[in-house]
Design brief:
heterodimer; A: alpha+beta; globular; B: 20 helices
Chain lengths: 160, 722
């Protein structure tokens, strides 16, 4: 049943009248028109639908709206501020860490979530954290290098 | 940044009428300078695909063109699509370099069937090699036209002018200048590049492009890039279709009363399509689950293990495709012989974007936004399915989220088009992951048998090669063997109906992964019989200078340690040819003896692809090939029972993950004097054999079947008694 759910999307408070059983992925893509979050497998295996919930990477295809009430959601559209790319986005561009680009939003948010929790990850920690985000084009090694570069950039404290 | 069709049309103030022929199209675009080119000239020059494909001849006038508009912007129109391979950048970069304009003043218009000249599709590693040179030559031609116009306008001789950043100026007097916009203003010049100019341009390409970042990268990292599923139309409904439990199943009864429980859901039946439409995708998903259907499923006792016997049974009589010498003489010259059978299973394309399309009927015309590698083929198919004239269908491919050959099939777009026509509403069809694993056109399972021997001095004495359903691509061997024969079943890898339990199709370097796995594994086996190191053995049996260079580069860069296999080091090498490119791969593996798990630690790949037009793009393609190759080599194999596909998602069908990734080093051999060859596929063909050979070198166990799963490695180790 539709009911009002309050939460925050990309830094802005919002109240949505939606069925609490609907998955966040579909609400983002249809009700909010935020199509940067992708459907890849529908069962939480591929990571294309990754968003941040209170700063933690989560699979939006597995998150019912009732479970995200009162939380802060960050989707890929909320990352670049005032027209400037976030350091993780910039590093993906700089390192050509993408090909078809379909898994890219999920990759970037998974990586950002890691760096929020651990600003100085080892290569092994990056691999472990990214393990369940799938890329079919084979950009993996470049993604790892991009995350390392973004970590270094973010540590400079230029942008929190 | 690249701008996309709508924006460009708006910018040019063009409202396209519904029927636009290629010739009329040029008139509509009117002002500026247009240079048309044909990739046929290069296709004719190389071992090219058939000139007539899919019932439609390649247009003989032109199949790509560029335009310098009256605003000075350069636009390029090609029927190719962007699916990650990077042509949106590499083609634009070539034009920008040649015309000396900034990359962001080049607009790429790709795959739109109303705007772009007909094209057979984006596959076969053909875009850059066949379209790169003619487009670059076209840009050079446009530059000449602009310089002539400038000479006239500025009253300065042509050879006293120079170009920089889209402005022509007098050498030594930069105040005397005219921009491309000034020069193109009021002009209506059309040039067709002739064949000679295209061929000359290939020879003159000595300057390779400087590395640039992808022009589509910013749109892709911000989530702004639109894929088919991101298209939103007024009143659009989301469709889910009733699907059979198995291939070959017939619908015997439907009870759709359950969908009434889902508010907003409606059922639509259109011939064999049974669909539920809903204003939300999740609503449609819930509703389709409420349909109860009875199916009659044929009995078919076939699975991923028994398929090989079946394939041998149904294979048509094979034909010799290549032969030389006398096999009997070869056998009598042999000191040792080896006969082995190599097996390879079905593999899914598994792009992360499932097949998706949005279709809309407007003014008797159907517009389709689809994830497709073949927009013009889709146009023809949709026109047929809808009973419309071809020009009443417009296909507009947005970005494609991975193709690998799988999106040459357009079933989802036909479904969307039929439902849109039936309902009069825009309809989206986006396959679930299970649908993607069901309706994929899988890489066929195949069997290769090789009978061969070695004579004195580590020379191969004879080679008798028979392929069943891995086709001819990569079956031809390139070693110097006096007595040889290559035999293939006619009809290639698809086979007659009843051969495969589901649809099969082209999968990145079709057939070649299987053929190269068999050939290069067998070459290593012969090397062991001859008591010669695998690299040395290949050199002894190779006359082809290009391949010798590829082998030496690969081995040297890798730091190959000459020793007979198995040396315990875990080094393996393989060679291959695909899409005109010669490729060598050396790998280092570790095999966990207790589990049989293979870990690839390092890959060094060298390729000779002629002139590398965009070396950065080519490098990324090599990395992608090597990474994707780990999947078919180590884990990917579709499990099925009769027509039932048992893998429905990535939990059981494993594709390469971050932890699998070795260090990857790539080398593009400088061969800029040779025409460009393919880049999107070659490096994937050598992955299976290089790993199999490295596993043998590590633990002395030979794998004859892909994928090389831990269980199969354990069994092979037991068999080898080591």
């Amino acid at each position: 049943m539709a009911k009002a759910i309050r939460l925050s999307f990309n830094g802005k408070p919002a109240t949505l009248e939606v069925d609490g059983e609907r998955m966040l992925l579909w609400v983002l893509r249809t009700e909010l028109g935020l199509t940067g979050t992708k459907f890849g497998c529908g069962q939480g295996f591929c990571g294309s639908c990754t968003v941040l919930v209170d700063g933690k990477p989560e699979r939006s295809c597995q998150l019912p709206m009732s479970g995200v009430a009162g939380k802060e959601i960050t989707s890929i559209e909320g990352l670049a501020k005032t027209g400037e790319l976030h350091p993780v986005q910039a590093a993906f561009v700089e390192h050509d860490a993408l090909q078809c680009g379909f898994c890219t939003p999920g990759m970037i948010l998974a990586a950002f979530g890691l760096l929020l929790a651990n600003p100085r990850p080892t290569r092994q920690q990056i691999l472990d954290h990214m393990e369940d985000n799938l890329c079919r084009c084979g950009a993996h090694n470049r993604i790892v290098r991009a995350i390392e570069a973004a970590a270094a950039e973010m540590r400079k404290g230029l942008r929190p | 940044m690249t701008r996309f069709t709508d924006e460009i049309l708006e910018h040019l103030g063009i409202d396209l009428p519904s029927e636009v022929s290629r010739r009329r199209f040029l008139k509509i675009f009117g002002g500026g300078i247009v240079v048309t080119v044909s990739a046929n000239d290069l296709l004719a020059l190389q071992r090219a695909p058939a000139r007539r494909r899919f019932g439609r001849a390649l247009p003989d006038d032109f199949n790509a063109f560029l335009r310098v508009g009256e605003d000075g912007r350069v636009s390029c129109y090609t029927g190719k699509i962007e699916m990650g391979q990077g042509v949106v950048t590499s083609l634009a970069q070539m034009l920008a370099d040649e015309l000396e304009v900034a990359l962001d003043s080049v607009d790429m218009v790709m795959g739109d069937t109303d705007l772009c000249p007909w094209d057979m599709g984006t596959f076969g590693s053909m875009s850059t090699r066949f379209f790169g040179p003619p487009l670059r030559a076209a840009a050079a031609e446009a530059r000449e036209v602009l310089l002539e116009l400038a000479a006239e306008k500025l009253e300065i001789p042509r050879d006293e002018l120079s170009v920089s950043d889209g402005v022509v100026s007098a050498v030594g007097d930069p105040d005397k200048k005219a921009s491309y916009a000034d020069l193109a203003q009021g002009q209506k010049i059309t040039r067709r590049l002739d064949r000679t100019a295209v061929l000359e341009s290939v020879e003159n390409f000595t300057v390779v492009g400087k590395p640039v970042n992808r022009t589509d990268a910013i749109a892709k990292v911000t989530g702004e890039a639109k894929f088919a599923g991101d298209i939103r139309r007024n009143g659009m409904l989301y469709a889910r279709l009733l699907r059979p439990p198995a291939h070959g199943a017939e619908l015997s009864g439907v009870d759709a009363s359950g969908i009434e429980a889902v508010e907003g859901a409606t059922m639509v039946v259109d011939g064999d399509l049974v669909a539920v439409l809903h204003p939300t995708p999740d609503g449609a998903e819930r509703a389709v689950a409420e349909i109860s259907a009875q199916w009659t499923t044929p009995d078919l006792d076939l699975d991923e293990d028994s398929i090989f016997d079946h394939l041998l049974k149904v294979a048509p009589p094979a034909e010799t495709v290549d032969s030389g010498g006398d096999l009997n003489a070869g056998m009598s010259e042999s000191v040792a012989e080896a006969r082995h059978t190599y097996l390879d299973g079905y593999v899914a394309h598994a792009p992360i974007e499932t097949h998706t399309a949005v279709a809309e009927m407007a003014d008797e015309k159907c517009i389709i936004w689809a994830s497709t590698q073949t927009p013009f083929r889709l146009q023809t198919e949709a026109a047929e399915a809808l009973g419309l004239a071809e020009e009443k269908v417009r296909v507009r491919p947005p970005f494609v989220g991975g193709g690998f050959g799988g999106k040459t099939a357009n079933r989802q777009a036909i479904e969307a088009a039929r439902l849109a026509k039936r309902t009069g509403r825009p309809v989206q069809v986006a396959w679930s992951r299970a649908e993607e694993f069901f309706f994929d056109t899988f890489r066929p399972a195949a069997v290769v048998k090789i009978d061969s021997g070695v004579g004195e001095n580590g020379r191969i004495s004879y080679w008798d090669y028979t392929t069943y359903f891995s086709g001819a691509r990569g079956a031809e061997q390139f070693y110097d063997i006096p007595h040889h024969r290559t035999v293939a079943a006619p009809g290639g890898w698809r086979g007659a109906p009843g051969t495969h339990p589901f649809a099969t199709g082209a999968w990145r370097a079709p057939g070649n992964n299987t053929n190269t796995f068999a050939r290069e594994s067998h070459i290593d086996t012969l090397a062991v019989l001859a008591g010669v190191d695998p690299v040395d053995f290949r050199l002894r049996n190779l006359k082809d200078e290009k391949m010798r260079r590829v082998l030496e580069k690969t081995a040297n860069h890798f730091g190959w340690l000459e020793a007979g296999a198995p040396s315990g080091r875990g080094q393996g090498i393989a060679l291959g040819i695909d899409a005109g490119t010669y490729v060598g791969l050396a790998v280092e593996v570790a095999v966990e003896r207790a589990t049989g798990k293979i870990r690839v630690k390092r890959m060094v790949c060298a390729q000779d692809m002629g002139l590398a037009i965009n070396p950065e793009g080519a490098t990324i393609q090599m990395e992608g090939c090597l990474t994707m190759g780990l999947g078919y080599a180590l884990a990917e194999e579709l499990r099925f029972s009769g027509g039932r596909v048992l893998d429905t998602n990535f939990d059981t069908y494993e594709i390469p993950r971050f932890s699998w990734l070795p260090e990857i080093e790539t080398i593009i051999i400088d061969a800029r004097k040779d025409p460009p060859q393919g880049g999107g596929e070659p490096a994937i063909v050598v992955v299976g054999a290089a790993i199999a050979n490295a596993v043998f070198d590590a633990v002395g166990a030979r794998l004859y079947r892909m994928p090389m799963t831990p269980e199969r490695v354990r069994i092979a180790m037991v068999r080898s008694n080591r």
